[in-house]
Amino acid sequence: MNLQDRINALVELSKLLTKDNEELAANVLQSKLHNQWFTEDNSWKSIEAIKTHFLDESILKSWSSKYQIKEGSDLKRVGLVLAGNIPLVGWHDIMCSFVAGHTSLIKLSDKDKFLTLYFIKQLAAIDSRTSQYFEFIERLKDFDAVIATGSNNTSKYFEQYFGKYPNIIRANRNAIAVLTGNETNEEITNLGADIFEYFGLGCRNVSMCLVPRDLNWERYLNVWHEGYKSYAQHNKYKNNFDHNVSLFILNKTKYMISGSLIVKEDPSIASRISSMHYQHYNTQEELTTYVNENKDLIQCVVSSKEIVGVDTFRFGQAQQPKIDDYADGIDTMEFLVSLS
């Protein structure tokens, strides 16, 4: 298959990603039954984002044209160790490897295996030649390069095991938000999506806010309560919420609360499920310094204001990455293309 053939297959795949596709809907339901964090709404949200931002023909052509993608025999076997924190989180790596023309050796997360398998099977049905580009494996061997995503602990293992190969190794990251106190209710609601979507489990979910000292927290908490109180009805999320409230009470930790979110002052960027941290800032220079000093922990920054030297996303856009919003700021396609 040449590049255009591969793009054509992805475009045809996008046409199948609709809610009236009974087979896809069955896989969405199966994902939910297997992993309660993968609600049907969350799976459809991921599918729609992939369809809109990754599989549009004009987007694929424009994006791929920026790279010197080689056709021919000098192609590689790329091990992909996928995360399983949100539905289809590993699809971008799979798609990049496919467009680059490499064979992907895919180690699925047990938490997220049905929808990815469905996507690959549909590609094979669209064009049988795609089958040569994908292998599902339990143990990674006979590979030329690796892209592995995991926790801070597993990333250390990945570095030891895969260090001698060309690699991209990703550990825990989170998004942060910078508030001014002048946000509109609409902006606060949109920020809520960055906090709550996928139950806060994604690396692009906001887990920390940098705020001015005079921020009116009551207004923010009230808006989030009205917009996202339904999250407290989800069994696993509610269990975490109740556990964390109990823990903070026992430890005499000061906190604020809305119907489904606990907010506390804490310098850590990563926060517990159902909670969010905040820190105060005073000047623009403090913001820039903070982001630069913590760049290895921050996946993206959302804000309504410009921050010198920092790329930001608008509120509500953290979980809507474009095709070239690469994880950890590492250009996955450039890495893959350079292997050939």
Protein topology:
Elements: H1 3-16, H2 22-34, H3 40-53, H4 57-64, E1 77-81, H5 91-100, E2 103-107, H6 114-126, E3 134-136, E4 145-149, H7 152-162, E5 167-170, E6 174-178, H8 185-196, E7 206-211, H9 217-228, H10 235-250, E8 256-257, E9 262-265, E10 275-280, H11 284-293, E11 298-303, H12 332-337
Parallel strand pairs: 1-2, 1-4, 2-3, 4-5, 6-7, 6-11, 7-10, 9-10
Antiparallel strand pairs: 8-9
Helix pairs in contact: 1-5, 1-6, 8-9
What does this structure look like?
With 340 residues, the protein is of the alpha/beta class. The protein has 2 domains: 3-171, 3-Layer(aba) Sandwich (Aldehyde Dehydrogenase, Chain A, domain 1); 174-303, 3-Layer(aba) Sandwich (Aldehyde Dehydrogenase, Chain A, domain 2). 41% of the residues lie in helices and 15% in strands. The protein has 12 helices and 11 strands. The strands form 2 sheets. It has a 6-stranded mixed sheet, sandwiched between helices. Strands 3-2-1-4-5 form a 5-stranded parallel sheet, with helices on both faces. β2 (103-107), α6 (114-126) and β3 form a beta-alpha-beta unit. α1 (3-16) packs across α6 (114-126). The radius of gyration is 21 Å and the shape is globular. The chain starts with a helix and ends with a helix. The model has no long low-confidence stretch (mean pLDDT 95).
